[in-house]
Structures are given as structure tokens and as C-alpha cells.
Amino acid sequence: MDAFLQFEGAHGVSPLLEETAIHLAVTGSSYRQAAQSLEKLVGYACMSHETIRQLIVEAEVVEHREMEKKGRVFFIEADGLYVKRQRSRIKGKEEKIVTIHQGWEKNGKRVSLVNRRYYVHQTNEPIWEAVENFLIKEYGYDPPRRLGRHQWRWRAMDHGLS
Coil, strand or helix: which one is 35? Predict the structure, then answer.
């Protein structure tokens, strides 16, 4: 039974429990809260918040997931997060983060973004070219062949953020 469930007794928890812990940590506000929620779920403290953090660090990231296309409008919001580097000669770096979505949906009193994706710029390619490639990959975006007024502004924005 253990082999069928891919459970290694010495490891301590099942893959499903690990997956649940990761989901709780990613959707919740903290690793500690995820550990507490998991404890309530199974009835005992099966994982510490540090163990959950390690699971997330070691988790495989799925880069591509098919998107349901909802129209041709994309809302793109860009921001930067300055991260100080510890124990490094480099003092810090601005991480460029782009949120892309296709509008808003009202869920009671809350509003959620439709087809939301995040792009964290990690290449040497200019950021807006990388975002355009991300749009092509994630949303099946077909860029226009000639440069219109909006595309000119899109390219012009590249000079301010590269």
C-alpha cells in the first residue's frame, strides 16, 4: 500500500499531505498559518512552518498552463520590488514584476482578476519584449505586424524600464 501511495515511512508524510501544505502556504498568508491549518486538518502537528517553507523552495514550478481566452484585451500592470542581497558584493537589485489579466469579476463584495498571470523578469532581454513573448506563450497573443500608435507607446515604454 505504501508503494502504491508513494509513501516513504521514514519521510513522515504522504505526497498528498505535502501538496496540501504547499497549497495552504501559497494561498494563505504565511507558512506558520499553513502549518496551523494543517494541524487542524489532520489532528496533530505533522509539519512545521519551516518544513513547509522547504517544500516550497524544492517544489517544481510548472511554467506553462493553458489559458481560457476571454477577449483580446490585456491589462498589464508593472512594478518593481527592490531586494537587498545578503552576503554578496551586489547591494541589491530591483525585481521587475508584471501582472497581466483580462479584466475583473465581482465575487460578492470582492473583485478578482480574470485569467491573472504574473511575470517576473529574469532574462537579459528588454522587459517589454520579454513580456510580449510571455503573452505569446501564455495567452496565444498574436502581435500586430506593423507598428500602430499603441505599439509605438508599448515600445517607447521599454526605454523607461530596461
Answer: helix
Tell me the pLDDT tens digit for each residue of 79-134.
Answer: 888 878 777 777 888 888 888 888 888 888 888 888 888 888 888 899 888 988 88
Closest by CA to 39, choosing from 29, 26, 27, 24, is 24
Q: Pick from 104, 84, 103, 80: which is nearest to 93 by CA? A: 84
Length of the chain counted residue by residue: 162
| Grid coordinates belonging to 72 | 483580446
The closest alpha carbon to 96, from 56, 124, 136, 67, belongs to: 124
Cell of residue 116, nine digits: 491573472
Say whether 62 sits in a helix, a strand or coil. coil
pLDDT in tens, 133-144: 888 887 777 776
d(CA 128, CA 135): 10
Among candidates 128, 131, 134, which has minimal Cα distance to 153?
128
For residue 71 the three cell numbers come to 477577449
Q: What is the pTM of this model?
A: 0.47
- The alpha helices in the chain, defined as continuous H runs, are 15-27, 31-42, 49-58, 127-139, 149-161
Please state, in angstroms and rounded to a whole number, the distance separating the CA atoms of residues 84 and 15.
Answer: 34
